[in-house]
Design a protein that fits this description.
17% strand, 230 residues, 8 strands, 9 helices, 48% helix, single chain
């Protein structure tokens, strides 16, 4: 596979976008960028600085503080993927909590946050050979991507997957809490004014409610090979 392309994977929360993207990047030798981790890191920064909680959201204070936020990924050979660093501190574990999940869609609604992160994401992909997943990769970040995938599954299926993942990490959460979070994020992601979650006209939709990770991987890898050899 000598020809390098840009692969955009969009979709709802907890559809396994990151898992698929990591598998594909390893198989193809491509760079993988988890844009969700970037938004989660900004959310964690906002929480640390008291800009957002259940009772308040000081949006303007966050916007003013954006120049103080430095994000980068560092590959961890033991884990086999790149971890998120916020101002040179590894925050990979902290950004994956349900608490961060509860605020991330609100942070992602802020146009100034999106502009900052989209600029960084586009710079990362300028040389192609990249797989990026998120909510607006095929519509905003890389509208000219050679392959666009849109992943979906029922809210209940996604909540069960997320619940199982959090439980395995020792997080004290209930299925009902996780389902509520998934449904709230779906609503905010699809209704925000700036870059809402929509299916790009030229995206291929994959409902993975009843697909195994292996079936999904094989399906998308075949699509990639078709594009590369076309």
């Amino acid at each position: 596979m000598s020809k390098k392309i840009t692969i955009a994977i969009d979709g709802y929360s907890s559809t396994g976008k990151s898992t698929l993207a990591k598998q594909l990047a390893k198989e193809l030798g491509y760079v993988y960028v988890d844009t969700g981790a970037m938004y989660r890191a900004v959310t964690f920064f906002a929480m640390q600085n008291g800009f957002i909680s259940n009772d308040l959201f000081h949006k303007n204070e966050l916007i003013v503080s954006l120049p103080k936020i430095k994000l980068h990924f560092e590959f961890n050979p033991e884990l086999g993927f790149a971890e998120m660093y916020l101002n040179d501190v590894n925050v990979e574990k902290q950004i994956r909590t349900l608490e961060v999940s509860g605020f991330v869609s609100k942070i992602a609604e802020v146009s100034e946050v999106r502009a900052k992160l989209v600029e960084q994401q586009q710079a990362m992909g300028k040389d192609k050979g990249i797989i990026m997943d998120g909510r607006d990769i095929g519509t905003v970040v890389f509208p000219d991507a050679e392959l666009k995938i849109f992943m979906t599954a029922s809210a209940e299926t996604r909540a069960q997957r997320r619940f199982d993942e959090l439980q395995s990490k020792g997080d004290d959460v209930t299925y009902e809490e996780v389902l509520k979070n998934v449904q709230e994020r779906d609503y905010i992601d699809t209704h925000r004014a700036d870059s809402p979650l929509v299916i790009a006209d030229d995206a291929i939709e994959i409902d993975n409610s009843y697909l195994s990770k292996e079936e999904q991987f094989t399906t998308v890898l075949e699509l990639i090979e078709e594009v590369i050899h076309s």
